[in-house]
Amino acid sequence: MEKDEKNIISERRTPGKRRLPDWLKAPLPSGQNYFRLKGLLKRYGLNTVCESASCPNVGTCWDMGTLTIMILGDACTRSCQFCDVFTDRPQPPSKDEPKEVAEMLSALGLNYAVITSVDRDDLLDGGADHWNQTLVEIREKCSELKIEALIPDFRGDERHIGRVCEANPDVLAHNLETVASLQATVRPQCRYEWSLKTLEFAKSNYGMITKSGMMLGMGESSEEVVQAMKDLVSVGCRILSLGQYLRPSMKHLEVVEFIPPEKFNEYKSIGESLGFDHVEAGPLVRSSYMAEKQAAQVVK
After folding, report:
1. Model confidence, pTM
2. What's the structural domain count of the chain?
3. What are residue 257's DSSP bridge partners?
C-alpha cells in the first residue's frame, strides 16, 4: 500500500471509532419528501437498501424523490463483512411483492428507479424468477420509467443472470465491491470471477448497459484499484461508482484509510481515461447515489 499519499487518515489497529473527516459528514434525514417516501414504504411493507444498509445519503436522495427498492426480503444468506444488511434464514419470497413494488413506483411518478435485492442462495434460482416478475410488473405499470437492476452474482450461473436480463432493465448493475486481493476477506461467500462473469454475460449476450461499484479504504493499493477498473472495462462495464467504505458497526471490518476527495477525483480521471462512459467518485458516493445522473450519458 502506498504510504506517501497526503491527507489520508489511517485507522489501522485503532480501537473504537475515529472522528470522521469533514468531507464525510452528511445531513440528517429531513424534509417533506423524505417523510412522504417513508410513509409509502410503510404502507406497502417494502424494504429499501437505503435504510437496511445504513446509507449516509438517505436524507439527500429521499428528499430528491429517489430511492432504491430492495426486493426478496431484508435478510441475506451471505455475510459480507462490510454490509449492514443482516444475515439470517430468509422468509419465502412474497408473491405480491412484484405488483406492490410496481404500484408504489407508479404512485411516486419517478423518471428513474433502482431495484436491488439481498442474496438468496437458499432459492434454487437465487431469486432470478422473482426478479424477472418484478421488472415485468414495473414495465407494465410504469412504461416511461428507466429501471436500473442492481443484482447479485447468482454464483455466476448464466441461466439466472439471463432470466433477469430477459426483463430488459435499462441498466444492469452488479458491484465488484473491492479489489481482487481483498475479496476473500470482504466478501467470503463471493468470487471476483463471478462478479466479472455476471457483467460480461449481461453485456455480451443481452447487450445490457452494465455498471459496477467499489468501496475504498479497506486496505487496497492505488495500483489494485486501477487494475480492478481495467478488469471491469475489459468485460464491457460502462459506468462505475467509487465511494468511501464506512464501518456500520464494531462487528464489521475496520476502516483502514479515509480517502480524501482529491484522490477520488484522480480515480475518476483515470477511470474515464481507461474507457468508462461515466465514473461517479467521491467519499459519500454509493452505487445508487444519484443513479439517474450516473446513467444519463449512457441511457437514452
Report:
1. 0.84
2. 1
3. 10
